[in-house]
Amino acid sequence: MKDSQNGSATNAGYDAGPVDMPQPVQTPHVRPYKSTRWSWIWLVPLVAALVGLSLVVRSWMHIGPTITISFESADGLEVGQTKVRFKDVVVGSVSDLRVAPDRKNVLVSVQLEREGSDYITRQGTRFWVVRPRLGISGVSGLGTLLSGAYIAVDTRPEHETEGHVYDFKGLETPPEITSGRPGTRYTISSSDLGSLDIGSPVYYRRISVGQVIGYALDPSGEHVNIQIFIDAPNDKFVTTSTRFWNASGFNVDLSASGLKVQTESLVSVVAGGLAFDTIDLADRQQAKADTRFDLASSRKEALAEPDGTPFPIEFHFYQSVRGLQVGAPIDFRGLELGNVVDIDLELDRTNKQFFARVRADLYPRRFGALHDRLIELNTEHKNPAKVLVAPLVQHGLRSQLRTGNLLTGQQYIALDFFPDTEQVAFDADQVPLVLPTVPGSFDRIQQQVTSIVAKVDAIPFEEIALELKNTLSATTALLKRLDTQATPQITQALKAAEQTLRRIDKLLAPDSALTGNIEGSLREIGQAAKSLRALADYLQANPSTLLRGRPADTFKVSP
Known about the structure:
The chain folds into 4 domains: 55-169, no CATH class; 183-302, no CATH class; 311-447, no CATH class; 460-508. The protein contains 12 helices and 25 strands. The protein has helices at residues 2-12, 43-62, 117-120, 144-147, 266-271, 299-302, 369-377, 384-394, 441-458, 461-507, 513-541, 545-548, and strands at residues 63-71, 83-86, 89-99, 106-113, 126-130, 133-135, 138-140, 150-154, 167-169, 183-190, 201-204, 207-217, 224-231, 242-246, 251-255, 258-262, 274-278, 292-296, 311-317, 329-332, 335-348, 353-362, 397-403, 411-417, 433-435. The chain has a 7-stranded mixed beta sheet.
């Protein structure tokens, strides 16, 4: 081992150069190995831990509250996949789906992001699922065919809400108008909804300026409240004097001027619609939000002058009222003064006879200046019906059923003066007033026809037929008697007359003696006439001849 050590030493000192003498071998100093307590390899998990912690902290800082939305169905919603968007910006995602305890709805848990959660969790926020839909206003949600359904959010302005809530009732259909859209909401009161629906357009001068956003039955149940929204700046045209009417479908008017068909647009024909206009162009004051307007059935009715408060009247018709319907006009010489509101069947116990009790509303202001004049002359009477109708009834005002359309058989009530009718008892203080009636034109014709038929039935047709038969028998016997007795004598007389005519013919023939004598006489008469004409000419030329006579003829002898 020593040799090996020496050899090692020799070899180790070989590089030092030549050695004259062997050097002593140094004893090696052995230092014990010390293990390192920290290694660079631990830097990787440390960095990963720091990154994870930062992500956790960052995620925790961005995570907002969890809200619950109730929907009827979870169609198209998926946990972790369905996003919640506000103005197409992702503000959360669906974290859980579960059925409500009452099993009527689906509860959707949404994890919101911290940024924006303050205004999303306020009262009045609306949520709905955006998916492809086909509605009156058009097709929406086509982008979800590729990206999938998502939950949209609509929030109200901060100054309109107070407090935060975390449980919401989701909408099954998207709202027609989102919060913050410039415009004004109004309420339209109508007797029925008709063909209107959410999304039906609202027109002003045939330009779409708004739409129907909702409707509900009034708590009283007497009419329907329709919510509309007019976009800015067109909402300034809705003033306190604005009138609305139903512009749905076609408006057909058949009158003496011809057939007129009007409609606002093709959309209003399919989806219904409303229209409005202002009767006072000088009125520039915009109506306040949520102002209530009444809905008229047509433009003509909406823009008509105010009729004032109507007073009720009644008509008692003892003839058929078939063709008379509720809403039929009360006409006075072509002017519509009111409308029928009810038709009932009543019994007249005094006369033991049924009659039709027709109730109507009469508008006194439609009489125009006549109404104002009568009110001025009768200031002591507060009842306009008594002041207006009572004098007219005394002068023969009566009501009569007349046919307004021969094709459909519709009837109306006409007011007119019948001075020949007898006076009737009229109670001007009765409420409602009962106006006296007269039979209609068809009823009079029916009465006349009935009278004629009764008279015809009274004719003794059997006696007339018997007398006619006896007369015909006597005439037949007379003709037989004439045939047997008078006919031979008549034949002989005709033969004698024929012979006489033949003789006369021969007498008047051109070669007969009578004809020759007549011709000779006529020639002589002609010659005499010529002589008389010559004499007259001579006397005219020589009038002295009548006194002196005719001078002797003178002859001149030629040499």
